[in-house]
Amino acid sequence: MNRVLNFSAGPSAIPLSVLERAKAEFTSYKGMGFSIMEISHRGKVFDALHNAAIEKIRKFYNVSDDYAVLFLQGGATLQFAQVPMNLYNGGVAQYVNTGVWTTKAIKEAKIQSINYEVVASSEETKFDRIPENIKFSDDADYAYICSNNTIYGTQYAKLPDTKCPLVVDSSSDLLSRELDFNTKNIGMFYGGAQKNAGPAGITLVIIRKDLAARVKDNVPTPLRYTTQIEANSLANTPPTFGIYMFDLVLDWINEQGGLKAIHELNKQKAKYLYDFIDNSSFYQAHAKVGSRSLMNVSYTTPNADLDALFVKEAEANNMIGLKGHRILGGLRASIYNAVTLDNVKTLVEFMKEFERKNG
Ligand SMILES: *Cc1c(COP(=O)(O)O)cnc(C)c1O
Fold first, then answer.
1. Within the chain, which residue ranges are assigned CATH 3.40.640.10?
2. For 130, left (φ over 0), alpha (ψ -120 to 50), or beta?
3. Which of 100, 130, 135, 188 is the right S-S partner for 207, CB 3.0 to 4.6 Å?
4. Which fold has domain 257-358?
5. Where does the chain bind pyridoxal 5'-phosphate (predicted)?
């Protein structure tokens, strides 16, 4: 079979066994004679799948009944606007700026003329780290962070402890490590599926129901979290095939041993790659030690011409998705859950050879 090694940042690699399973069931879901795409989102077959997926997510993250688990549309991008629209409560919303995605979220707070503050930023150092000593006010309406910065390759080693509700954009490290909702004051935790949990088209939103109830009368019905909470995400037709794929990925995570095992593997993969980069004088990592992402490794060769050549030769060697984001330039290897340690070792072998020829 002709499958490449896929280091794309998103949409990105999906486990082969998940794709094979979807292929086998494509025309006849569990032998029922219809595709999962061809049936009502309100019927009992889809309902069972949908609720089972929600339960799996609750179990992974130890999510209590105080929270709703929703599958929404519009990407993480729509959440940048929906968060202030629904959760701002007349006080102050506090943001940490760690890159492009938080900058966009902050822009939406500004557009809505809410009272917001940027309490910490790493913009001065080209977003190469997570700021130290972040201080949120205990009584802020919410504190907002992006747990993994897909473009710059930085990640919070741990989610901050807050007295106020914490809102987390976890799009690019969703289901990549353990998280116990009982140990943090999480108000809302969300992410698009297309980095680590399946195809594009779904945003997983886990939200505390009492915070969703803050919503003001002037917020349009489809943009209220309460609308989807009351309807179990069925206020309108959800992306049923995407939810099906998401559910297959949840099963695959269980087969790997759950989030703890996945996290261990992710640490090994990232260490293997960073160790090689740090021991080389040819390659340089963008993110500072202590802030490095286990998911996205952004790095450079000595110059932009070599970066371009690297991407070209990598493709000739069956490896795709290694070009850095256009904003940062350079190279980026996204090593999400579906990328194996062997895949990373193959990449490092290629990097060695490229350095030998061009160093
Ligand atoms: C990809 C990404 C987004 C944007 O997701 P869309 O689905 O394109 O809206 C937002 N935040 C983070 C951290 C991302 O990685």
1. 16-255
2. beta
3. 188
4. Aspartate Aminotransferase, domain 1 (3.90.1150)
5. 76-77, 101, 150, 169, 194, 236-237
